[in-house]
Structure formats: structure tokens, C-alpha cells
Amino acid sequence: MTTGLGVVIPAYQAERTLARAVASARACGAEEVVVVDDGSTDSTAALARSLGCTTLVQSNAGAAAARRAGVRACTAAVIVLLDADDELVPSGVARSLALLPSRGADCAGVGGVTLAVAPGGGERTMRARRRRVRLDDLLRDGFAPGAPAAIVWRAPVLRAAVADAPPGLWPAYAEDYELTVRAVGSGHLEFHDEVSARYTLAGGKSTHDPMRSIAASEAIRLHYAGVHAVPVHPRPPRALRARVLLREAMNLRAGGPRTHPRYGALILRAAAADPGLVAAMTARKVRDGLSRRRRRAAR
């Protein structure tokens, strides 16, 4: 077992992007890089081996299964989960690594800010809603607090999360959310303000089918609320519909400025479906903006 940083990379048809992902892991000081080739037909596995990575090959079973296999194989003390088309940012990862040992044993991991990169090259930051995220926060929100690569996890926490108990749902959608819920358990995550990962908004599953993604997230939150006896209630159809519309609007925004002709219409339809959700979202964005300005002014 190594005492340092390990990076787990699930990879499918990733021969064009894998080298950059691995280089970013090495730049962060990773002592171990585990690449799980999820049934690729290109040269992903051969490239991973040539880059000196621990390389596993499995039949195509999806990113979640590949990620779980990689966590089981990784022997490092702390682990980052990096997609093959994303990159780590060394300064942000270093900040997470510096903070994690000083946090209590119930801190499952420390994360930073995600820099989301659109296909056209536009960039925007994605921040966790809270500095400290607990299980009940995750189950109320119904989504992960950031991209997987933005978080440095204590390895024992992740290994327990990919174990068979409690029984998981492991859907084809929202798999990052489920793994985060399982890993946090009775502990918490903490977040800082440095960019830790570059996340490619390249039209993944949630972009193409936000309805299935939202449905999977809802099934996950209700399942684990039952497992952990957390009092949450099923969201009514109108609330789920509003979340689908907001996800579609965010996907449009990812491609550039908010001037897309459908962006405003989607927000209005979401507000009609669930006025409280959109009002709360708007208020939170205003509060977050003010908070960031105060922190910048205090530096």
C-alpha cells in the first residue's frame, strides 16, 4: 500500500484524451494511477500501459462499474476519481491534500472548485453549495456537490463505498451521486475555493437524457434515505419536471452565454412547474455571489 495519492481513471474509447488526464495526475504527485479500460475497441489499454499506469480491462459495463473496480485495485492512502477526458489542477489538489489530514476522522474528503469547459472553449466555475456537506444535505439536494475529480477522498471511505453493503442501486445515470452518498455516510465533505479540476462538458448521458438522470437521482435519494433513516419525502411530478427543465437550461448555458433563445423559456417553464424551487435557486445564486465578493474583498 502506498502512503500518497492515487488516481483512478475509468476509460472508454479514450485514446485521444487519456494522456492528458494521466499527465495531470502525475503533475499532482500521484504515486499510483489506475486506468480501467471499460471494453474499449481503440488503443486505450495499450496507451495506459505505455504511460506506466496500473491497467485493468473489463467488458463494457459503464463508468460506475469501472470506477468501482479501480477503487478496489488502488492501494493509495487517498484517491481522486478522474474521468479520462478531464484534468486535475495541481494547486487545487495540493490544497485539498494539505487540508485533509487536519480534518477530523469523520471528514470523508476535501474538495475544491470545478472549472467546467464547454465544447466551444467557454469556461465557468462550479462550486459546492456549502463549505461542509453532510449526508442529509446530499439527500435533500438530490445531486453531487461537484465533479468527481474535484474531491480528494480518504481511501478507506471509498473502498467501503464500493463494497456490497448496504445494497446499491448502481443505475446507468447519476452514478457519481450514488457513490458520493455512499462514501459520505455518517461523515461529511469539506470544500475550499481553489480550482481543483477541469471538467469537460462534452454532452454526457445527463446532457442527452436529463429526465433519466433526474429520475435516477430521485430513486437514489429515496433509497438511501430509507437505508439511513433520513426523513426526506418523494418529490411530486411537477418538482421533478422543473428539475429536468433546469438541467436542460444548464446544458444550454454550458455551450456559451445565457443568450441561447431557449434558455429563458426553459427557466420560465421551470418556474411555472415549481415556483419555490426557482425562487430558492435564484436567491442562492445571489447569496453565493455576495459571499464570493466578500471573500475576495477580505483577501
UniProtKB/TrEMBL annotation:
<dbReference type="InterPro" id="IPR029044">
    <property type="entry name" value="Nucleotide-diphossugar_trans"/>
</dbReference>
<dbReference type="Pfam" id="PF00535">
    <property type="entry name" value="Glycos_transf_2"/>
</dbReference>
<feature type="domain" description="Glycosyltransferase 2-like">
    <location>
        <begin position="7"/>
        <end position="111"/>
    </location>
</feature>
<dbReference type="InterPro" id="IPR001173">
    <property type="entry name" value="Glyco_trans_2-like"/>
</dbReference>
<keyword id="KW-0808">Transferase</keyword>
<protein>
    <submittedName>
        <fullName>Glycosyl transferase family 2</fullName>
    </submittedName>
</protein>
<dbReference type="GO" id="GO:0016740">
    <property type="term" value="F:transferase activity"/>
</dbReference>
